[in-house]
Each structure stands twice: as structure tokens, then as C-alpha cells.
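Suppose you are handed only two things: the residues of a chain and a line of SMILES describing 2-acetamido-2-deoxy-beta-D-glucopyranose. What would the bound structure be? This form records exactly that question and the answer produced for it, so the two can be stored side by side and reused later without any lookup.

QUESTION INPUTS
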Amino acid sequence: MKTIFVWGCLLAVLIGPCMSDIYMHFPPGSNNRLNGNLDNVKNAARIFDSQNNGKAGYNVGDKLDTNPADNIPEYRQLPMQFYMGGCSADVKTEVEIMWTNQHGTGPKTDDRVESQIILQYMCQEFPDYKFPNGELPDKANVFTVFAINTIRNGQTLPTQAFTNGGRENTFIRNDRVLHEPSNYYQSYIRRDRNKGLFTADQKLGGDQAIFTRQNAGGQRRGLEVPEERDYYPYWGPTPWNDIAVLVSNKKTEEKIKKYVDSSEFGFKYLCIMPTKLTGNVDCPPRNKDNVREEKCVAKYITEKSCKEGGGEWTKFITNYLEKTKGILSTCHTVGETKLKRGLPYEPHKISQGADGNVQFVLSPKKPEVLFAPSTTVNHNGVNMEGKFSTYKWKVPCFPSNTTQRCVLRIRYNITTEDVKREFDASKNKEVLNNPKTKAVDGKTDLQLALNTAQVGRTFQDRSHVIIVKPRNLLPEKFQHSNIYYIGEWEREETSCRLIPPWNIASLLND
Ligand SMILES: *[C@@H]1O[C@H](CO)[C@@H](O)[C@H](O)[C@H]1NC(C)=O
Ligand SMILES: *[C@@H]1O[C@H](CO)[C@@H](O)[C@H](O)[C@H]1NC(C)=O
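ANSWER OUTPUT
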């Protein structure tokens, strides 16, 4: 009886009127869209695994294209632009991130799921000598102005190409979208998955970190690593910097706070091997000379197995803003950023940075751990306070004043009552696909449509490319002002589709 009740409830949670889940409205989330005028997202595997409804998402901004065809050259796109935060603690730039999520969040929700919202960003220098404003010149040719790993929206719809073990510059295409670099994905295809995780009765297609309970077949979507997508905190290094984790209950709050407050926060390990190592695939070839790289990632995910296998357990510093590059090596603390010493994680390299030098990097303020705004179940709109769910992101300061290309990422993770957070591989036999049971009368046979890939689920949205510009491009008198960006949002609804015309207002206040 109890079982039926709980499952019945779970089904109600999973099958909403439009089975959708998290949408970022400001900055506008793509939900894997690029451009075009059709209702449905054309390639839901373009950049990341959203698990969202295909009717949602915003097109990339453009320079008044009259024909919204699917393909749009990068130079016709108009990325949102924000000025960096000031480098002293009292000068800030605030972007109010707005989203809606369909199931409950927050301490007051009436939903029976426990959930978190995780906000992150990824940034990359767009060297100022080339494009001081971050704007591409008219007719810019992406094959010459972009590097292989430049963060980009792409100008065609297909997913970025990838060849396992291949030479990166033979498969990566500059006209396709790229967030995570291919050597990051390559490293995790080389690396074992965590076999202690709860996978229910899902038959995972292999032993690498691309196979998870939610993605048992290891389908690739963009160059996102499925295991990293599904789990937070993640045990391996990632290109994502944390902004905030918004939780729903005390227990998870304590758990995440403990992680964030630890002195080890930001440090992650990989097992690094030489070109060849028994039991591992040889390192991939380098772009420059097609010779196999001297260091790359081995399959082991623990210190013990790494050492026993002949690898080197290597500590990386992640979650940093910039390397100090000499010019900043004498600064101690710049505003809320801190100087930390370590081996910088460099996800675009085959070595993942293992062939670099230990040095100082600038680390941003640690992520905030807060309670999420409380929302009503199955209401993909304003929260219980009648407002949009928002978080005020303090845009970081990149002290070298180099224009950055960035992407914002929001994830929404739900844990249902019958598959608890504590569950690990030892509970795999307890939750089965389409289980057979008896109806309330105790006689009638029932089979429940339960998909164990979806008991506990992660949803996601990401922005298109955002340009973060240095404040020294502003008139002198505004360089030390607080800047607030406020999204203005109009809603026009046809089934689940939200049509863009958003506006942006920035206030300068000195
Ligand atoms: C989602 O919740 C599960 C627990 O149910 C946890 O193991 C996982 O790390 C969480 N994932 C994310 C992305 O927060
Ligand atoms: C960066 O710009 C800020 C604001 O204009 C200025 O105060 C600072 O000196 C600049 N830093 C560098 C390294 O140029």
C-alpha cells in the first residue's frame, strides 16, 4: 500500500502537462537552440543534456536578421555583454539570473522531492589585442578567428564532432558549438566511472565516466561528461566554476557547506600516465606534430589504484579565474579573490595541465550555499512569493582586464523519496524498471511505468556565449561604479513556448 502510494506520487511528479523542467530566462537559456523559427529544438544533443521539454529555449541574439533560418554566422550573432566586477570588494557588477523550474524547490515547497539548483559559469580569455570589445568584425571567418577551443555558439546545428583517441585538429569544427573542450571529454572517456554509485537495474554500456544511470547508453551531447553532469560535488576536475548551490533542506545544506568550506575546495585529482601504460589506451596524438602526447589521463580514479597501476596521482587547482602570468604575482588579495598556489587545471590540453608548472592563480570567492526560492509543484512560473526565482550573480573581476567569453549553466537536481541521496551500488536491486505489484485491493496485478533512469534526475539549461568586458573600456568616471543588470521579460505563451523579446537595462550608480 505504502509502496503504491509513493510510486503513484512519483509518477505524478514525472509526468506533468508539458514535461519540462528548468529554464533560464535571464540571461536567456538556449535549451540547445541556436536560431530558427520552429517550435521544437532541432538538435537536443547539440551542447548538453537538458532533459527539458523541446518547446522551450531562446534563440541566440542576432543583429536584426530578417530571416531567422537555423544557421546564423557568428558575426551576425549578438552575444549579451556585461562589464566585469570591480577588483576591490566594494565595487560590484550584479547580474540577476532568472529562471523557472517545474517541480518544487526550497524549504516551503509542497513537492515531495528534495532538490538543488546549481549555478556555474565557464570563462575563457578572448585576447584583447584581437577583439577588445569581444565583438567579431563583419564577415569574420570562424576558421581563422577562433582557436580550436574558443567557446562559441556555432553557426550550424550539428553536435560538435569527436573521434575517440583522434588528433583534435582533424575532427573539431570551428563552425560548430563548443563549450567544454574536446580534451576534457577525451580524458573522461579514458577514465573509469565511479562504480560505487547507485545505478538501479540500468545496464550501463561500459566502464567509463560517460555511462551513468541517467545515460546508460553513454549518448554524447556536446562535449559534456555525463557523470559530471549528473553528480555534484563531482570528484574529478571540471572547467566549471561554482557560483552558488541553492538547496531545499538542512541535511543537504550541511553536506554542501562542508564541501565548500573545506580547505581542499577547488583541488581535484587525476591519475596521470606517460604516453604508454599497461592496461590503458596510449595517449592521443598532439595537434602540432601528430606525435602521441607525453602525459595524459589514466583510467584510475583512486590514489591507490593509480599508484598500483603505475600512474601519478596528480593534484590540480580548479575553480580559478586567471593564472597570475607574472604581472600579478606580487598581489596578495585582490578584492574578494585570493591568491592560491597549485598546478592549474587546463581542460583543453591532452595532459589536462599535468605538464604545466606549479604557480599562483587567482581564485574567486567560494560559492554561496543558500536555500532555494520555494516553488509550487508543477508550476513552471513564479515562485511562492509571486516573484521570479532569481539569484544575484556578482560577475567576477579578471584582474588582467582581458575580455572573456563565458557561458552560464544552471542545473536542477531532484531526488525522489524512494531513491534516497544515501543510496549507493549496494541498493541497486531495490528499485526496478516497471515493477509488478498489487493494486489497493491486494488482488489485481499492476505493473508500474517506472523508469529507473528517471528516479532522481538532473535537468539543465545554459546561456549562449556571454561577453564579459573589462571596466577600463568604460568612461573613467564609471570604472569604479556599481553596475546592476536587470532582465526585463515579456511572456507570450503558446503551449510551453516562451518567446524571447527580452530587454536588458543596466544602471550605473556612482
Ligand atoms: C543529485 O542528487 C543525487 C542524490 O539523489 C546526488 O547523488 C547527485 O550528486 C546530485 N547531482 C547533482 C548534479 O546535484
Ligand atoms: C584594469 O582596469 C581597472 C579599471 O579601469 C584598473 O583600475 C586596473 O589598473 C587595470 N588593471 C590592469 C592590469 O591593467
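WHAT STANDS OUT: The helical segments are 2-14, 142-145, 168-171, 182-190, 226-230, 250-261, 303-308. The longest helix spans residues 2-14.
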